[in-house]
Amino acid sequence: MASGKEVILTQEGLKQLQEEVDRLSTVKRDEVAERIRSAREFGDISENSEYDDAKNEQAMLEHRIGLLQEKLRRARVIKESEIDTEKVSVGTTVTLRDKERGEIRIYTLVGSAEADPSKAKLSNESPVGQAILGKRVGDVVTVPVPAGLLSYEILAIGKMS
């Protein structure tokens, strides 16, 4: 993550990232430190798998905290007032109709750092996200996917709820 690529976040995404850094830096660090202390009590640390596991967990935790802090340093937060509902942009909620199946899908377009398909939060860098970015209501987009091509009509664009 050494690249200086901007991290686009919504206000909610920024809050979640800050909360995760806070939780990992306090509660989780304390838990890992306690595991290391406990493992030391077992005696010789040169052959102590509990100690090794705890130290590995500590290294992974510190790495994760560092990555999140770097994202926060490079974050650009999309303000509610910047969101234009005339065209699809990060922070908008988009209603799409699958042209082939007729299915309606509603996605919120977010930066890649807060994408979560299970919550219908679509990355602006995903194939569908890239295809709909900048488009308007009534536009039809075609998205190449491993199974072929998907066509969506943009039915509505609104602000993130």
SSE layout:
Elements: E1 7-10, H1 11-40, H2 49-73, E2 75-78, E3 92-98, E4 104-110, E5 121-123, H3 127-132, E6 140-145, E7 148-159
Parallel strand pairs: 1-2, 4-5
Antiparallel strand pairs: 3-4, 3-7, 6-7
Helix pairs in contact: 1-2
Descriptive keywords:
two-stranded parallel ribbon, 38% helix, 7 strands, 161 residues, elongated, Helix Hairpins, 27% strand
Q: In the CATH hierarchy, what is the architecture of the largest domain at level 2?
A: Roll
Helicity level, as a percent range? Answer: 25-40%
Q: What is the top-level CATH class of the largest domain?
A: Alpha Beta
Approximate shape: elongated
What structural class do the secondary elements suggest?
alpha/beta
- What is CATH's topology name of the largest domain? Chitinase A, domain 3
Which runs of at least 5 residues are low in confidence (pLDDT < 50)? none
User: Strand-residue fraction?
Assistant: 25-35%
Mean pLDDT: 90
Number of domains: 2
Supply the CATH superfamily name of the largest domain.
Answer: Transcription elongation factor, GreA/GreB, C-terminal domain
Number of helices: 3
Question: Helices and strands, in N-to-C order?
Answer: EHHEEEEHEE
Largest sheet, strands/sense/barrel: 5 strands, mixed
Q: Distance between termini?
A: 30 Å
What would you note in describing this structure?
This protein is α/β, with parallel strands linked by helices and 161 residues long. The chain has 2 domains: 7-78, Orthogonal Bundle (Helix Hairpins), CATH 1.10.287.180; 81-159, Transcription elongation factor, GreA/GreB, C-terminal domain (Chitinase A, domain 3, Roll), CATH 3.10.50. Helix content is 38%, strand content 27%. It has 3 helices and 7 strands. The protein has helices spanning 11-40, 49-73, 127-132; strands at residues 7-10, 75-78, 92-98, 104-110, 121-123, 140-145, 148-159. The strands form 2 sheets. A 5-stranded mixed β-sheet has the order 5-4-3-7-6. A hairpin with a 2-residue loop joins strand 6 (140-145) and strand 7 (148-159). Helix 1 (11-40) runs antiparallel to helix 2 (49-73). The longest helix has 30 residues, at 11-40. The mean pLDDT is 90.
